[in-house]
């Protein structure tokens, strides 16, 4: 059985993914912003399913220091990690700057997960068949990798930055696959579908109405491709691949650009090192 870390594990697609994988007998490390809420969920789940192996660890993607502290704890507690599912994310209609000095969508959707994954690489490389799964979106096709505008310094729009960061999720997965495949690491990105969760509810206007659209699928349906990539025989998967509906799909051409991959990695790493997080 695998040890699987999931961000945003106490709600939406993350919670659905947690339940499905726990039911299959895997150990789940639930990364959650609201620890009290997550512990209540775990208590209720284990009343009905006492065999679920769930560990709650508090981290907030809006607070990079919490990721540093949380990953230090994980490294002290676990000898290896088989799967990271970078599930959490959001869309923000206004340009906001986090306590760490980064634009909120860039930090929550990309930079926080980059930091978490890179800091946990030693544990991933202890696994004989490790996997990183980044939740992206078909909306990545509207995005652009502009190394001089990662924080929306020159131009910003809520949907524009969402598309940019979802493209970054795919680019990061491909960079991971290219850099570490020789050491047994596999990385993938996922379009989960258009899911009925709390997505967009933090906003006003049209973004706030997103969750009421009639065509949305259930979180359980949205979790299917992540579960597939976490559990399928690795011989049947394409390292660096972008998946929809548990099938390999074609990502935007920008995602395949190795120059984009290298520049995004180097810039993300430099930003984090400059503030002492790496």
UniProtKB/TrEMBL annotation:
Keywords: Oxidoreductase. The keyword Oxidoreductase applies. Pfam families: adh_short. It comes from the Bacteria. The keyword Oxidoreductase applies. SUPFAM superfamilies: NAD(P)-binding Rossmann-fold domains. This is SDR family NAD(P)-dependent oxidoreductase. It comes from Lacihabitans lacunae. The lineage of its organism: Bacteria, Pseudomonadati, Bacteroidota, Cytophagia, Cytophagales.
């Amino acid at each position: 059985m695998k040890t699987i870390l999931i961000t945003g594990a106490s709600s939406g697609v993350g919670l659905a993914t947690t339940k499905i994988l726990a039911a299959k007998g895997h150990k789940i490390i639930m990364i959650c912003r609201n620890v009290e809420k997550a512990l209540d969920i775990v208590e209720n789940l284990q009343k009905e399913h006492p065999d679920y192996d769930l560990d709650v660890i508090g981290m907030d993607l809006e607070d990079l220091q919490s990721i540093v502290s949380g990953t230090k704890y994980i490294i002290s507690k676990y000898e290896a990690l088989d799967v990271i599912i970078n599930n959490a994310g959001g869309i923000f209609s206004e340009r906001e700057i986090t306590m760490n000095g980064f634009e909120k969508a860039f930090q929550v959707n990309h930079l926080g997960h980059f930091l978490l994954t890179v800091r946990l690489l030693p544990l991933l490389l202890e696994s004989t068949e490790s996997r990183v799964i980044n939740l992206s979106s078909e909306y990545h096709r509207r995005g652009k990798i502009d190394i001089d505008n990662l924080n929306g310094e020159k131009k910003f729009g809520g949907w524009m930055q969402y598309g940019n960061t979802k493209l970054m999720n795919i680019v990061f997965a491909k960079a991971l696959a290219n850099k570490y495949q020789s050491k047994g690491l596999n990385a993938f990105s996922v379009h989960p579908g258009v899911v009925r969760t709390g997505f967009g509810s933090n906003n006003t206007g049209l973004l706030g109405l997103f969750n009421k659209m009639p065509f949305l699928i259930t979180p359980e349906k949205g979790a299917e491709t992540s579960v597939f990539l976490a559990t399928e025989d690795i011989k049947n998967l394409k390292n660096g691949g972008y998946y929809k509906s548990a099938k390999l799909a074609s990502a935007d051409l920008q995602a395949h650009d190795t120059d984009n991959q290298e520049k995004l990695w180097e810039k993300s790493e430099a930003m984090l090192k400059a503030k002492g997080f790496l």
